[in-house]
Amino acid sequence: MSPAQRKNTQSPAPHAADSHDLLRVHGARVNNLKDVSIEIPKRRLTVFTGVSGSGKSSLVFSTIAAESQRMINETYSTFVQGFMPTLARPEVDVLEGLTTAIIVDQQRMGADPRSTVGTATDANAMLRILFSRLGKPHIGPPSAYSFNTASVRASGAITVERGAKKTVKATFNRTGGMCTRCEGRGTVSDIDLTQLYDDSKSLAEGAFTIPGWKSDSQWTVGLYAQSGFLDPQKPIRRFTKKEMQDFLYGEPTKVKVNGVNLTYEGLIPKIQKSFLSKDREAMQPHIRAFVERAVTFTTCPECDGTRLSEGARSSKIKRISIADACAMEIRDLAEWIRGIDEPSVAPLLTALQHTLDSFVEIGLGYLALERPSGTLSGGEAQRVKMIRHLGSSLTDVTYVFDEPTIGLHPHDIQRMNDLLLRLRDKGNTVLVVEHKPEAIAIADHVVDLGPGAGTAGGAVCFEGTIEGLRASGTVTGRHLDDRAALKETVRKSTGTLEIRDATRHNLQGVDVDVPLGVLCVVTGVAGSGKSSLIHGSVPASAGVVSVDQAPIRGSRRSNPATYTGLLDPIRKAFAKVNGVKPALFSANSEGACPNCNGAGVIYTDLAMMAGVETTCEDCEGKRFQASVLEYTLGGRDISEVLAMSVTEAEEFFGAGEAHTPAAHRILDRLADVGLGYLSLGQPLTTLSGGERQRLKLATHMADKGGVYILDEPTTGLHLADVEQLLGLLDRLVDSGKSVIVIEHHQAVMAHADWIIDLGPGAGHDGGKIVFEGTPADLVADRSTLTGEHLADYVGA
Fold first, then answer.
1. Which range has the worst mean pLDDT, 97-106, 269-278, 672-681?
2. What distance in Å separates the CA atoms of residue 513 and residue 538, rounded to the nearest whole number?
3. Among 315, 527, 730, 755, who pairs with 762 as Cys (CB 3.0-4.6 Å)?
4. Is 93 left (phi over 0), alpha (psi -120 to 50) or beta?
């Protein structure tokens, strides 16, 4: 055998390209991370654990995913980058081995009234094309089936500049599918005029009762009083017919008020533009209360809530219109599409079929395409975002998930686990931030951060396998096998909240008595009707305080002190001791550093390059003028107080010169919900999802209501924190409150006094009460999915 032949029989040396199988992070210092250095295996499923606020999201989202996105953006031309969000480089020394990151987070989908599940995915667009090709009668292109497209007709003369100029007559038509009555919203509003003004008063006497309409504002009240259309001294009830028409429905007209050109228009269109075109959930509480008082929303009588014009509804395939198709549950729609055999649109049918099957596979087959996207829970929104990635041909990318099991019944978690493993098995790196033991169990690699939260966290406590984590002695390792036991005795109810014939969404005429004075848990698989029953059917008159999962709205200037109202008593205490105005102790008012306007940092915009954020040299990041910091309370200035943790501040304001009962009460509530580690001045934008919900809960604990409704309060909570939450729920009930919790976590179910289980399935397979009773009875009964999983959990 020749040397050349011998050489070919040896196994080849590994290729250099195959050596890059680790994602390396060195010296990460984003938010509370303390010089974190780790190596994450590629093409494996890595789960990040740790108490809420320990730095998981800072490492996974704000460091790894953020740098990946920033580097991809830099591959585009500077012209294109000018239209993209500018991302600063995360504070990290080295990031090696990055691949393209696809982020699937829990951000709620846009709550625009025109946005639906169908428009947020590609399903509606494909359905519109399908109906424009096969619908009988044919009414036009895909836009003719779109409720976001209005019909347009125009005609006139146009000048064509080609050689000799020539004027020609032209007409233009575009057929849209929008219902003209409701403008594609599906609902019409009726306004109660008595809530807008007091007709016994004149405009000059302050007749308007609309929030924010002050008598000295030339933009609102002044505009009507000085428009020339109305007599400002005459009571509104004595207006002539013409004056009333101008007052309520006047067309937009240019007028001059105090030398300023303004547009006058009737009160009704003005209210519709300024209040009714906005999402109610995004309004401030007092504005939302006004809208709920003044406006009644009813289903549009012309389109019957379908949002579509008569033409779009008349065009059908196999006796089904596009409105009927969007109203079907997605699993039924998938079956209907499967029955259409038309070779001319075969590729379209295949793509649409795949999208609809993905909905079913991910456990969202109970939704309908017409469902407004703003009504989806955080977990549902995250799974809708997953749909576009399930059939993707991309490999060797990094998928980043933020607690994908949120909003999932234990029965559904296995299905989610299978999907994550499928993404990994296609050769992708899957990074998951998670608290549930069932989801942690499938990890190839576990990274545990901690040991505590906030400043007490930000370090890697453990890296390795799930077995190694159990034996590691970290907070997560110790609590991984925690199981709440059933209570030996349960509280007796002190009354009932009656719900009769509830039919909202998929509820099938439900009658139920919700017990008061106890901890009542409402459970069932995702889509079984839990939120519809509690949020939709509990009367507002019952003194209900609802703490849902809607995000906290606030800028980087907002912090726990401003959000909870804690800053008001603190400012007053400083002002009283020092004999000055309270406004001096606000970084958003008179006390702000003039150089950075109270932000503490200077932002430099570099167009398409990432903006630079530098600490203000004048105030050294303290946000206040130097003269303000000379005033002290109990030996501390205002910037030092805002730098304190809740626990420190609780002690500081509890006794001595700084004793402030109003501040101490709020701090007590923050400590109660497990936020003792938060600093008072920490920007709200840096809080994790679990921290935000608990901050909301602390704020609402001062409300006067007797019934508390909590929507999955274990969201974002570590296993070690669940015990503290259960203690808080017990204290609320023992103080005389009634607590109703919508929850999937078995620890909360086991701790309940009473369980209401909905099901048996989701969508039209749900909407019924399948069990009412104590947790012990549910475990003994084992007649429902929840009962089976709870029995396994408590080891019965």
1. 269-278
2. 11
3. 527
4. alpha
The answer to whether residues 106 and 432 touch, using CB atoms and an 8 Å cutoff, is no
Q: Which residues make beta-bridge pairs with 756?
A: 522, 772
How would DSSP label each residue in 205-252? Answer: GT-B-STT--TT-TTTHHHHHTSSSS-TTS-GGG--HHHHHHHHHPPP
CB atoms within 10 A of CB 182: 22
Beta pairing partners, 520: 740, 754
pLDDT digits (tens, 9 = 90+) for 98-155: 999 999 877 667 667 788 999 988 899 999 999 999 999 999 999 999 999 999 988 8
CA nearest neighbour of 47 among 463, 454, 461, 451: 463
What's the CA gap between 9 and 3, in Å, rounded? Answer: 10
Dihedrals phi, psi of 682, to nearest 5 degrees: -70, 130
What φ, ψ does residue 532 adopt, rounded to 5°?
A: -60, -40
Residue with tokens 């602390």: 698
Write out 370-409 in H/E/C secondary structure.
CCEHHHCCHHHHHHHHHHHHHCCCCCCCEEEEECCCCCCC
Q: Which of 554, 721, 564, 555 is nearest to 642 (CA)?
A: 564
Closest CA to 609 of 74, 217, 53, 245: 74
Each residue's pLDDT tens digit, 361-394: 888 999 999 988 877 876 788 788 888 787 778 8
The pLDDT of residue 280 is: 61
| Confidence (pLDDT) at 6 | 47
Question: Which pLDDT tens digit goes with each residue over 722-740?
Answer: 888 898 899 889 988 899 9
Residues 104, 670: Cα–Cα separation, whole Å:
30
DSSP 169-198: EEEEEE---B-TTTTTSSEEEEE-GGGTB-
Average pLDDT on 329-350 reads 95
Q: What is the pLDDT of residue 688?
A: 67
Whether 622 contacts 593, CB under 8 Å: yes
Six token digits for residue 444: 């190839």
Residue 37 has φ and ψ, to the nearest 5°, of: -130, 120
Confidence band for 521, pLDDT divided at 50, 70 and 90:
very high
HSE value, Cβ hemisphere, 13 Å, CA-based, for 587: 27
Handedness of CA 499, 500, 503, 508 (dihedral sign): positive
Torsion of CA 423, 424, 428, 434, to 10 degrees: 90
User: What tens digit of pLDDT does each residue of 186-216 get?
Assistant: 988 778 888 888 888 888 888 888 887 876 6
Q: How far is it, in rounded angstroms, from Cα 88 to Cα 613?
A: 9
CA–CA gap between residue 473 and residue 259 (Å, rounded): 74
Judge contact between 322 and 308, C-beta under 8 A.
Answer: yes
Element (H, E) at 466: helix 466-470
Tokens, residue 757: 């289980």
Q: Determine the 3-state secondary structure of 642 from DSSP.
A: helix
Q: Note the residue count of the chain.
A: 796
The residue to which tokens 């007749």 are assigned:
207
Please give the average per-residue pLDDT across 529-540, as a whole number. 82
Q: DSSP secondary structure string, 711-780?
A: E-TTTT--HHHHHHHHHHHHHHHHTT-EEEEE---HHHHHH-SEEEEEESSSGGG--EEEEEE-HHHHHH
Residue 320 has a CB neighbour count (10 Å cut-off) of: 16
**pLDDT tens profile 680-695:** 998 887 776 667 778 8
